């Protein structure tokens, strides 16, 4: 390891240390609470870890140096009005609203009182007081995930201010989703925030969680470092939406780690429209047979955006299925990365694993790196992957123009359709409508 | 409406159309027939504005304007519609969304007020009902996974919604079973009006049992070598194209 990177790490660790000491000083006698130990252990571990560089295989295409060189501050509550907030709501979506502004829970803007039956939400601090839930949380944070050199998980745990646990009752089928709306309003301050969610789908239950990320100012620079831990128990189904509409100068790193028990389903729906540097790590480990895992991802990068999706599915047991579909568009000087790892262990016979990554690269200066990575040690499996990089189909442009669409209109519609192919798999029409409207807005602003 | 004069077209130096003359008046249906490779589809594609062809001579006048000088979308705005031989599949955009975009693009270009989504949807549903098309059709991705018959039926729906002045059917009947073929024919008949015309390009006489043309033209070696009424199509069906080829070849020899 070079001296430069050591220097870089020590600078970063200095401001991290200072921030953590400020937090500890503010505990005021709460330091004997389990949450304090939970954070402290993460902080201690973080101090021993190195931040990744591009020499690390899992971070080859994404340089985190610009992200960690900033000295961030915790966000402060803002005076975002109800009217200003309402523009971020998804029209027609009946959801429990959790408003998090600059990383701070805004109780007035949130609508927490309309929790559907069968679903429970509590803070991580409270959940750690419960022995059973606490051990589940501990087990989840001990998961390694699919990405080596990942101190961002510890950083999240050390600094998360409003971590939540969502846990369903057994057999509960909950239609109404919980929608976490994260909004950055800082423009003169460089905030960082650490959204943290534990989703626990109890036996034979089903529910949906949506996280969406927004900014009131498209030039605002800030860092969102999110962590999601998902435990799907026997025969349960958790739907997890991550809709990223950050400002064009924002940094975001998201880690989502799922473990699935037998006959369970985990569906992850991910959209990246915003962000200057975005890294999305997602991993799933199969613990019992009959498991299904779905990853849907869409991305649209313009200007100098950098969007990196890193997926890992660990097929450890027989008779499981995984299905990954990532599609995106890159133009201007944008860069996209898809690294899809699938591990089929020797015991995982009768595995079906499908992976698809398709990108449109629409300018000479845009770049896409696609890296499917299948490691198969079982002999009776069906695995396939396809990575394609192409341009808009001229015959389709002609077809649409012959129906009256302008050249630009036809090209925009085809781009929207390309991404729409992923989005149409989403389960809530208001989400589909919102995402497609955001895609439209972004394409027509060009 | 449409006046084609001495139209000559090449592709990569090879002459495909070698002097086409054709006039279509409002309300008329013209059938263009001919053996494989005679230039039928080229004619349809040149009229629609496909740009891989080189137009070496001739003019095409559409309502007093130079059609060949218009961009593909402008031709649509002016009232031209090509039903494709092979409609493209576009996953990720529903039929309804696509039709909304197409209707409003045309209205905007003509200086008409844009229709609200709900108004367009009403219009589309009415046209679907007229053509006996199930409304679930509208929610499906554009042509994705459609059978051959469904694709052609979708072309007819688009034509009904866009209400062109001139509809060109490029071998729309090729490969269709009799039921799908009847749907296409019924659609054209339903859209027939005194100010709307059709040019039906076909390889087979069968379609013309259901869409009765006013004129039948035979294309051979890039020229219209014979014109007549619907009886010419019946004669072609009975005798094939060879007798025409022999006639023409005898003259040019």
Helices of chain A, by number, come to: 10
Order of helices and strands of chain B: EEEHEEHEEHHEHEHEEEHH
Instruction: Give the integer mean of the pLDDT values of chain B.
Output: 92
Outline of chain B: globular
What is the percent of helical residues of chain B?
25-40%
Give a quick account of the main beta sheet of chain A: strands, pairing sense, barrel closure.
11 strands, mixed
Would you give an account of this structure?
The complex is a heterodimer of chains A (446) and B (253). With 446 residues, chain A is of the alpha/beta class. Chain A has ten helices and 21 strands. In chain A, 25% of the residues lie in helices and 36% in strands. The longest helix of chain A has 23 residues. Chain B has 253 residues and is of the alpha/beta class. A six-stranded mixed beta sheet of chain B has the order 6-9-10-3-11-12, with helices on both faces. Chain B has eight helices and twelve strands. In chain B, strand 9, helix 6 and strand 10 form a beta-alpha-beta unit. Chain B starts with a strand and ends with a helix. The interface between A and B is medium-sized, with 26 and 30 residues.
């Amino acid at each position: 390891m070079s001296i430069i990177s050591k220097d870089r790490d020590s600078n970063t660790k200095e401001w991290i240390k200072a921030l953590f000491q400020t937090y500890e000083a503010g505990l005021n006698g709460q330091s004997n609470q389990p949450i304090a130990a939970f954070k402290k252990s993460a902080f201690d571990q973080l101090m021993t870890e190195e931040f990744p560089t591009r020499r690390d295989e899992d971070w080859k295409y994404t340089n985190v140096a610009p992200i960690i060189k900033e000295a961030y501050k915790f966000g402060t509550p803002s005076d975002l009005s109800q009217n200003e907030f309402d523009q971020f709501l998804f029209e027609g979506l009946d959801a429990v609203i959790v408003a998090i502004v600059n990383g701070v829970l805004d109780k007035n803007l949130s609508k927490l009182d309309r929790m559907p039956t069968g679903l429970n939400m509590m803070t991580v601090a409270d959940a750690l007081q419960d022995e059973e839930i606490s051990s589940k949380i501990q087990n989840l944070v001990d998961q390694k995930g699919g990405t080596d050199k990942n101190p961002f998980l510890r950083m999240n745990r050390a600094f998360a201010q409003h971590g939540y646990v969502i846990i369903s009752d057994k057999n509960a089928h909950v239609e109404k989703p919980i929608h976490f709306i994260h909004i950055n309003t800082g423009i003169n301050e460089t905030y960082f925030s650490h959204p943290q969610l534990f989703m626990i789908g109890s036996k034979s239950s089903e529910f949906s969680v949506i996280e969406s990320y927004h900014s009131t100012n498209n030039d605002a620079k800030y860092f969102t470092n999110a962590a999601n831990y998902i435990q799907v128990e026997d025969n349960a189904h958790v739907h997890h939406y991550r809709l990223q509409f950050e400002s064009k100068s924002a940094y975001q790193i998201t880690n989502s780690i799922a473990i699935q028990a037998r006959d369970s389903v985990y569906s992850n729906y991910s959209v990246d429209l915003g962000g200057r540097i975005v890294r999305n790590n997602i991993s799933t480990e199969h613990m019992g047979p009959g498991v299904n895992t779905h990853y849907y991802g869409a991305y649209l990068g313009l200007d100098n955006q950098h969007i990196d999706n890193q997926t890992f599915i660990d097929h450890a047991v027989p008779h499981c299925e995984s299905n990954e579909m990532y599609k995106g568009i890159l133009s201007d000087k944008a860069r996209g990365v898809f690294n899809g790892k699938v591990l089929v262990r020797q015991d995982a016979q009768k595995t079906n694993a499908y992976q698809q990554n398709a990108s449109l690269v629409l300018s000479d200066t845009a770049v896409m790196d696609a890296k499917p990575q299948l490691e198969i040690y079982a002999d009776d499996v069906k695995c396939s992957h396809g990575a394609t990089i192409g341009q808009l189909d001229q015959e389709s442009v002609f077809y649409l123009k012959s129906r009256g669409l302008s050249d630009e209109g036809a090209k925009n519609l085809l781009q929207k359709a390309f991404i729409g192919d992923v989005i149409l798999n989403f389960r809530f029409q208001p989400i589909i409508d919102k995402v497609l409207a955001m895609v439209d807005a972004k394409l027509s602003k060009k | 409406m449409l006046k084609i004069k001495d139209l000559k077209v090449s592709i990569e130096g090879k002459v495909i159309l070698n002097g086409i003359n054709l006039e279509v008046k409002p309300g008329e249906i013209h059938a263009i027939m001919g053996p494989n490779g005679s230039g039928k589809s080229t004619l349809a594609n040149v009229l629609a504005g496909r740009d891989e062809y080189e137009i070496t001579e001739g003019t095409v006048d559409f309502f007093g304007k130079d059609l060949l000088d218009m961009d593909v979308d402008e031709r649509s705005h002016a009232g031209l519609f090509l039903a494709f031989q092979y409609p493209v599949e576009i996953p990720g955009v529903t039929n309804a969304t696509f039709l909304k975009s197409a209707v409003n693009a045309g209205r905007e270009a003509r200086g008409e007020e844009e229709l609200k989504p709900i108004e367009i949807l009403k219009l589309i549903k009415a046209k679907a009902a007229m053509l006996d098309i199930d409304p679930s059709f509208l929610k499906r991705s554009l042509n994705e996974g459609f059978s051959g018959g469904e694709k052609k039926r979708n072309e007819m729906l688009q034509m009904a919604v866009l209400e062109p002045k001139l509809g060109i059917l490029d071998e729309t009947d090729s490969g269709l079973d009799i039921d799908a073929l009847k749907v296409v024919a019924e659609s054209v008949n339903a859209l027939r009006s005194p100010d709307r015309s059709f040019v039906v390009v076909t390889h087979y006489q069968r379609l013309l049992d259901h869409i009765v043309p006013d004129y039948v033209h035979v294309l051979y070696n890039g020229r219209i070598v014979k014109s007549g009424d619907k009886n010419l199509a019946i004669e072609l069906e009975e005798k094939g194209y060879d007798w025409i080829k022999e006639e023409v070849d005898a003259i040019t020899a």
